[in-house]
Amino acid sequence: MSKPKHERTLDETEAQAILRNIRVSPRKLNLVAALIRGRTAQDAVATLTFSKRRIAQTVKKALESAIANAENNHQLDVDRLVVSRAEVGRAIVMKRFHARGRGRASRVEKWFSHLKIVVAEKAPEAPAPQQEAA
Question: Hey, what domains does the chain have and what are their CATH numbers?
Fold first, then answer.
């Protein structure tokens, strides 16, 4: 006996990739995720390629995975993909201590994050009709 099939929560024109327990704080990861929200897939990959932030390469791999899922699993057109959502969430927090003066200790928190990237196929836009000058 197996589990019942999980219902698909996304539209037919969407695909996603999820990364869990990334070793970066959600606050820093959200700065990188904000760079790609609403952009076309090719533009988002180019932005992440030349970003100076350390975590940008990990986000780029997740985005490329979402693009590959759209192409291979859902037969979507790669040229029309747009990053519709890039969600960042909190994961575990490792608690460590830092030895201080006079025998005291202070707490150091090492944050982890979750990342969910959803790409959607956008319908081709029809060119606006041009009006002739009279």
Answer: 14-121 (3.90.470.10)
